[in-house]
Specification:
The chain has 1090 residues and is mainly alpha-helical. The protein has 44 helices and 14 strands.
Length: 1090
């Protein structure tokens, strides 16, 4: 349209006023013709009838010359000339009508090019007048005039917002459509205009009824139009936008599904080289993303990201929507981060938004969207990392967006809301009530700018409710409580059924009702809080992770208030915890999620649940809860290696099917990639970010989803087989208790509520040892102090030795003495084997060396002197270590693989390995050293040797535990994840004489027990010896000699991995008594497994 009221709404009829060129004038010299007619006009009498014609002709020439030169003076002269012709030609109807037409055309040009509002008013006035004239005498179609009048009215509505204009336009088009024959081009054109008019109206009024009318008319247009009609793609695009808009309000999945179907039709209509394909791909991606936000179906999110990347690949660097594509892809990657916890996705989103900002300098119409996108991503990164710089940048960006959206701007409510979200976060960080006050002020303003029922209104009211409650906590004004409750209820009532955000809203309200109850003591608030929490957890349309957060809040409310639903809440939460972690396609993505600062409150969930069960004297359930919620990364992979001997006997094909799918799924889960994305620093010029990027995550996720679905079906078939009803279900206590067949298992549970020690014995009730009320704080401080000191001081430091002694003395009081005393009371004789299973930060402490423990002989003894101590990450890991594969090696002297990698810092490795070879016997030893000590060669030799001894550097990777490794030839690394991939059913004993092999990296996930020792145990080694920190080079030879001498003392033929714990204890005692090494050096070595 020439009036440009549609912002590119193609497919409308071409107005008779849309062109200013006059073909018959092309061969004339316009300037000379204007001069000729201007000279002729004065020669005629003033009232001569031809003066009107001459004025019209001169105006036409000026109008034509404007079309070639663009000089506004020509256009002004044309308008004056047409007006003169009208005045002089009142008695000449055909000329009068033609002058009206041309005058309107000129006014349209001036309005389009110079935006003169008065011209638009004149256009409408003249078109109304024209519509009442006998247009046929001038050869003008009345239908065209009425169409153009409708367009002009719609245009004035868009400019001025007068409701009567759009109502008149719609009424006029409804009349016009009755003037034409259905199924003709004219009918389709007018139907299209009518649909566009309704679309324009609903864009301004934001009324659901207007949107429904627009959608109905667009559907009618598409139904009546031919499949190959050139306007069809534009109608499809408009209808997609409106369906998506209605979906975001109502949550009706039919709308978004229809939109996706229409988008696909649109893509099918466009050639691969068609520049409009970029638009279509972006629209389809937007539909998929909207579907994801409603349903949290990650498959739709991955489709959105894929389409955005495809569009970006096709998009030329200077394309007008390049910035929008970058912004939208950034929002999709942010959603992926929120779903799976992948920091590289968030960092890529940040870089995309920075690139978009570079394309949107000050004054650009999309600048506020680009700033908003970056602010949103930076806020998320702050929540994950707690870097205050990110939060400060977030607030600065959002303040700028607010300046760019002054009162009256349609985006202002959203910008006010976003800034208020960041203010609430800043309040949490600083406690400064000024942020809450300013947030409340902004939210009240935003609430007045959006209509009730609009999707933004529910978010605004929900945040306002939370801020009002925080203000009440400082001021104590009861009105704030009443208003907060009212706004919470309203916001939740506005959520459409099936929306994924319902659980979060219910949970937030429940948490704040708990706070209100703590202030008012009104038990009704508590009851409602519990009811809302339960509803949030059981709401089937919300994401697993949102429901998990709700379940965790429920546990807190129920426990602190003494509500009987607490145990139910903990059970629900633990079930959701495993599901939430399993969403990630690989162990790396799962670890990224569980190690995030934003979910650190969930990492204590298993211990808190066990603590509550112990308070209720439900000791067996407490142990089940710990097993269900700890070491989840290992247990998830271990489940794929479930022994199937019995199933093979019943249904071999079903067992083989399970094995085949499990192995394929394990290959995906243990996949490692170089990071898909490295963040582009602020200020760098990387406009090609994300173009053509290989998205390995999407591929892994799709394959994991497919295999998991297949495996679930197989598991259901197995569970339907008689005798296999409990296959792959949570392990019951009666089975977990078998971990204590070889000796008691001591679980030390650390919880902020109450810490406890449980002793599991085979065929005996669980024994509970209570702890002091300050156990949690003391244990936490011990772990922190020891860790910080170790980071600051080198091996053999007097300072570290002093701190370590203090730590072990306090551990003796907290754990060592009460455990030793209770074991003796239970009739467990000294020198018996025991297994330690510490939780939380206790897993980083050398509990086996707790002491000195007093005795009647006054001999200084440590816990490991009284009992032979081993560790286990979980009961399942210990049970698996005890199971023996039927295809295992025959009895006899075991063969030993020695992996040695000496260098200038490890000069003792050669003598260590030679000494071992001598003690074990060279015929049973294979040495892999020097050039042969490569990761590939080591992995290839491991299946041939049930025993292995590593003598090399161990490398700890803080924050990236799966990259912890043994350093081998040419600085190659045998990583933890590579070891975990290996399946060694005949493996028995691994001695890891390297630094840090049983040390937990400081990633906030001690209960996942991610270290090299645990990886060796998972791969199949039944007994593993590791180190809790750095080891001295000379200790390798001495400890090995003591250890292997003890192992082979009764002869090589009877040497067994089951003797390794005693042999290690013997070797460590020898280091202490004969070599006189420091406490730090002998306490370093630990035993894991059977």
């Amino acid at each position: 349209m020439a009036l440009n009221f549609d912002n590119g709404a193609q497919g409308s009829s071409k107005s008779q006023f849309s062109t200013l060129s006059i073909d018959s004038l092309n061969d004339f010299d316009v300037n000379s013709e204007i001069n000729r007619w201007q000279i002729l006009a004065p020669t005629l009498p003033f009232r001569h009838p031809d003066r009107a014609l001459i004025a019209h002709i001169i105006a036409v020439y000026h109008h034509f010359r404007y079309g070639t030169t663009g000089q506004k003076g020509d256009l002004d002269q044309a308008i004056v000339g047409y007006a003169e012709a009208l005045l002089r030609g009142m008695n000449h109807p055909p000329l009068n009508i033609e002058s009206f037409e041309y005058l309107t055309r000129a006014l349209v040009s001036r309005f389009n090019d110079f935006g003169t509002r008065e011209d638009l008013d004149h256009i409408i006035s003249y078109l109304r007048h024209l519509s009442n004239l006998p247009l046929e005498v001038a050869g003008i179609k009345r239908l065209d005039v009425l169409n153009d009048l409708a367009d002009a009215l719609r245009g004035r509505f868009k400019v001025g917002g007068r409701p009567e204009d759009i109502e008149d336009a719609i009424s006029l088009l409804r009349h016009v459509i009755t003037m034409v024959t259905p199924a003709t081009d004219d009918y389709r054109i007018i139907a299209s205009k009518l649909a566009i008019a309704w679309k324009t109206k609903c864009e301004q009024t934001d009324e659901s009824e207007d949107l429904a009318e627009a959608i109905s008319h667009y559907r009618a247009v598409l139904t009546s139009s031919l499949l190959g009609h050139p306007s069809r793609p534009f109608h499809l695009s408009d209808l997609v936008k409106m369906l998506k808009s209605r979906f975001e309000r109502s949550g009706d999945l039919n709308d978004v599904n229809d939109a996706a179907t229409l988008c696909q039709e649109l893509l099918d209509l466009l050639d691969k080289e068609d520049p409009d394909r970029v638009w279509a791909l972006m629209e389809l991606a937007s539909v998929y993303h909207s579907h994801f936000r409603q349903t949290y179906d990650s498959e739709n999110l991955e489709k959105a990201i894929s389409r955005y990347r495809e569009a970006l690949l096709l998009c030329p660097p200077d394309h007008e929507i390049k910035d929008t594509l970058l912004i939208d892809l950034g929002f999709s990657l942010k959603s992926r981060f929120e779903t799976f916890g992948r920091m590289d996705c968030l960092n890529e989103a940040i870089s995309l938004h920075r690139a978009a900002i570079r394309l949107c300098p000050r004054g650009h119409p999309h600048r506020q969207q680009s700033l908003r996108g970056l602010a949103n991503a930076m806020h998320l990164r702050y929540l994950r990392t707690r870097r205050i710089e990110d939060l400060e940048e977030t607030i600065n960006l959002e303040r700028e967006t607010l300046v760019l959206t002054p009162p009256g701007h349609p985006m202002r409510p959203q910008m006010l809301y976003n800034l208020s979200v960041s203010f609430q976060t800043q309040y949490t960080w600083t406690g400064d009530m000024g942020y809450i006050e300013e947030g409340i002020e902004h939210l009240y303003e935003a609430s007045k700018l959006v209509k009730s029922g609009h999707p933004d209104s529910r978010l605004i009211l929900h945040l306002l409710a939370g801020n009002l409650l925080r203000r009440f906590m400082h001021r104590g004004a009861n009105k704030d409580i009443a208003d907060a409750i009212k706004h919470y209820r309203t916001s939740i009532s506005l959520m459409p059924e099936g929306h994924s955000g319902v659980s979060s809203m219910l949970s937030n309200f429940a948490c704040d009702l708990r706070l209100i109850f703590s202030w008012t003591g009104d038990v009704e608030h508590l009851k409602e809080s519990i009811a809302l929490s339960r509803s949030a957890v059981e709401y089937p349309f919300s994401s697993v992770r949102h429901r998990l957060t709700a379940a965790n809040s429920w546990t807190v409310t129920a426990r602190l208030s003494g509500h009987p639903s607490a145990l139910t809440a903990y059970r629900k939460a633990l079930s959701l915890l495993q599901r939430a972690i399993d969403l990630g396609p690989t162990v790396q993505t799962r670890h990224e999620y569980i190690s995030g600062r934003d979910i650190e409150h969930l990492r204590t969930l298993p211990m808190d649940a066990a603590s509550y069960a112990i308070e209720s004297r439900a000791y067996e359930e407490a142990i089940e809860m710990l097993e269900q919620g700890r070491a989840l990364l290992w247990s998830g992979m271990r489940s794929l290696r479930t022994p199937l001997e019995h199933l093979h006997e019943v249904d071999r094909s079903l067992a083989d099917e399970f094995t085949e799918i499990s192995q394929a799924l394990e290959a995906i889960i243990t996949t490692t990639h170089v990071r898909d994305f490295v963040q582009t620093p602020a200020g760098t010029d990387d406009d090609d970010v994300a173009i053509g990027r290989k998205d390995t995550f999407a591929r892994d996720l799709a394959e994991k989803r497919r295999l998991s679905g297949e495996l679930d079906k197989v598991v259901l078939r197995i569970q339907a087989s008689p005798g296999f009803e409990n296959f792959w279900r949570p392990i019951p206590f009666r089975h977990l208790q078998t971990a204590a067949i070889g000796g008691p298992v001591v679980i030390i549970n650390l919880s902020k509520y109450c810490s406890d020690i449980l002793i599991i014995r085979s065929n005996h009730p669980v024994v509970h040892i209570p702890t002091p009320t300050n156990f949690f704080d003391r244990a936490t401080n011990l772990a922190h102090q020891l860790s910080e000191t170790r980071k600051s001081y080198r091996l053999e430091s007097k300072k570290y030795d002093r701190v370590l002694r203090q730590t072990l003395e306090e551990l003796s009081e907290l754990v060592g003495q009460p455990v030793a005393k209770r074991l003796m009371e239970l009739g467990i004789p000294e020198q018996s084997r025991i297994w330690l299973c510490p939780t939380s930060v206790l897993a980083s402490l050398p509990i086996h060396a707790a002491g000195p423990i007093s005795s009647h002989t006054n001999v200084k003894r440590y816990l490991c002197d009284i009992y032979v101590c081993s560790y286990t990450p979980s009961l399942s890991a210990l049970i698996t270590s005890r199971s023996r594969n039927l295809s295992g090696p025959a009895s006899g002297q075991p063969s030993l693989l020695i992996v040695g990698q000496p260098d200038e810092t490890l000069p003792g490795v050669d003598s260590e390995t030679r000494s071992i070879e001598y003690l074990v016997g060279s015929s049973s030893v294979t040495r892999t050293a020097g050039e042969a000590a490569t990761p590939e060669n080591v992995i290839a030799h491991l299946p041939m040797h049930p025993w292995v001894h590593f003598a090399c550097h161990g490398v700890l990777q803080p924050g990236r535990p799966f990259e912890s490794s043994f350093l081998l030839q040419h600085n190659t690394h045998l990583t933890l994840i590579r070891i975990a991939k290996t399946h060694l059913p005949t493996a028995e004993l691994a001695f890891l004489a390297a630094c840090h092999t049983a040390e937990l990296a400081e990633d906030g996930t001690p209960d996942e027990v991610l270290h090299l020792t645990a990886a060796m145990q998972f791969s199949g080694f039944r007994s593993v010896i590791g180190t809790m920190w750095a080891m001295a080079d000379e200790d390798g030879k001495d400890l090995s000699e003591y250890f292997y001498s003890k192992m082979f003392a009764a002869g090589a033929q009877v040497a067994s991995y089951e003797q390794s714990a005693r042999a290690l204890r013997h070797a460590a005692q020898k280091l202490r008594t004969e070599k006189g090494v420091s406490l730090e050096r002998w306490a370093n070595f630990v035993h894991y497994g059977a």
